[in-house]
């Protein structure tokens, strides 16, 4: 913890990469906070309602689009000057107010290390425990993904329902790898089967309203290709390690974005994919390892791809304390 001149305690920022020395947590600067106080602004009491997002009535001219891309590129380069604004920091004990001010509202990702260290799930959710708790209750999962390079775009065609213990047999070591995965997309159908597991989790009160998360269960080797979400998302890692690559929305022009929320560059780390989409080499990207107990905030519009390095159980949440309705105005055409 870093003690600040106003007596407030703020969490220390942790190094994203061991080689980088990171400064004490001075987000947005005390100077800015003092200036805001001088004009009577107190973030603790004033969280303004989100302004509506209006779609333009006429097509946006090419010139305006070129200016927009220029401005996005300049902004990203400017952010890269700062290890806080321009990186994905790893934090501990991040109060809700600091999360809102420095990450949720500005739309910057952050890892919150050890944020769910007190959840019984972390020690309990072994494959054996899950088999006992859920048994042969029917669960919906995504299956047959190996046969279709666009398994995420066509996710409806990969839905299948089977007893949970059969799913666990399917993904046992040496088994399905990326072929079978229980994802958030299946969570509506799986609420009853997974209900016993929610005795092992705790509410995340600084950031979320009370609601169950959406469960992702899969073996080492599941891969979710490069895409962005239409909501702000909180990824909460209970079991296993996942490796994510994130790309800021400002880099979209490099990512062959032709279909819905997906990039034609499925894997931005793959030499083959980069050879097919050489522009993607120019995109600024960040690697994040999410370990048991960690949470990652991914703001709406941030590209990400996710690889499970081990058997993994993760939850995702979108029920933030603050507005999260960007999907309502997404221009899908
Ligand atoms: O963990 C995964 O495989 C994908 C998670 C993800 O992309 C998401 O929640 O948007």
Fold and architecture overview:
The chain has a domain at 121-329: Sandwich (Jelly Rolls), CATH 2.60.120. It has a 7-stranded mixed sheet. The chain has helices at residues 29-38, 62-79, 96-104, 121-124, 127-134, 164-170, 187-194, 271-276; strands spanning 2-3, 9-10, 13-14, 90-91, 110-112, 138-142, 159-163, 214-218, 223-227, 233-239, 242-247, 286-290, 295-298, 303-308, 312-317. Strand 1 and strand 2 (9-10) form a beta hairpin. The chain is of the alpha+beta class and 333 residues long. It contains 8 helices and 15 strands. Bound molecules: 2-oxoglutaric acid (AKG). Residues 184, 216, 222, 224, 229, 233, 235, 242, 304, 306, 314, 316 line the site of 2-oxoglutaric acid.
Order of helices and strands: EEEHHEHEHHEEHHEEEEHEEEE
- The assembly state of the depicted protein chains is single chain
Kindly report the CATH topology of the domain at 121-329: Jelly Rolls
Give, in spatial order, the strands making up the sheet with the most strands: 3-4-5-13-10-15-8
Provide the CATH architecture of the domain at 121-329: Sandwich
CATH class value of the domain at 121-329: Mainly Beta
Question: What's the CATH H-level homologous superfamily of the domain at 121-329?
Answer: Cupin
Helical content, roughly?
A: 10-25%
Shape by Cα distribution: globular
| Gyration radius over CA | 21 Å
């Amino acid at each position: 913890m870093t003690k600040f001149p106003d007596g407030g305690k703020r969490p220390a920022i942790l190094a994203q990469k061991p080689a980088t020395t990171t400064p004490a947590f001075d987000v947005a600067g005390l100077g800015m906070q003092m200036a805001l106080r001088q004009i009577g602004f107190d973030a603790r009491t004033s969280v303004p309602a989100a302004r509506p997002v209006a779609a333009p009535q006429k097509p946006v001219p090419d010139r305006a689009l070129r200016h927009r891309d220029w401005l996005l590129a300049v902004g990203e380069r400017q952010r890269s000057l700062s290890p806080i604004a321009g990186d994905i920091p790893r934090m501990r004990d991040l109060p809700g107010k600091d999360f809102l001010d420095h990450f949720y509202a500005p739309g910057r990702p952050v890892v919150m290390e050890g944020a769910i260290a007190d959840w019984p799930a972390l020690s309990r959710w072994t494959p054996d425990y899950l088999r006992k708790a859920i048994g042969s209750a029917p669960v919906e999962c995504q299956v047959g993904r190996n046969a279709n390079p666009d398994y995420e775009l066509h996710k409806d065609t990969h839905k299948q329902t089977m007893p949970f213990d059969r799913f666990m047999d399917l993904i046992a070591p040496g088994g399905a790898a990326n072929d079978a995965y229980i994802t958030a997309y299946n969570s509506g159908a799986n609420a009853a089967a997974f209900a016993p597991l929610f005795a092992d989790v705790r509410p995340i009160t600084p950031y979320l309203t009370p609601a169950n998360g959406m469960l992702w269960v899969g073996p080492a080797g599941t891969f979710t290709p490069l895409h962005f979400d239409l909501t702000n998302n909180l990824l909460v890692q209970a079991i296993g390690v996942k490796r994510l690559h994130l790309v800021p929305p400002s880099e979209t022009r490099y990512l062959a974005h032709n279909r819905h929320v997906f990039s034609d560059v499925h894997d931005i780390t793959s030499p083959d994919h980069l050879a097919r989409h050489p522009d993607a080499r120019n995109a600024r990207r960040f690697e994040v390892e999410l370990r048991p107990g960690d949470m990652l905030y991914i703001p709406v519009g941030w590209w990400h791809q996710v690889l499970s390095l081990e058997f993994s159980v993760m939850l995702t949440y979108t029920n933030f304390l603050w507005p999260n309705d960007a999907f309502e105005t997404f221009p899908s055409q």
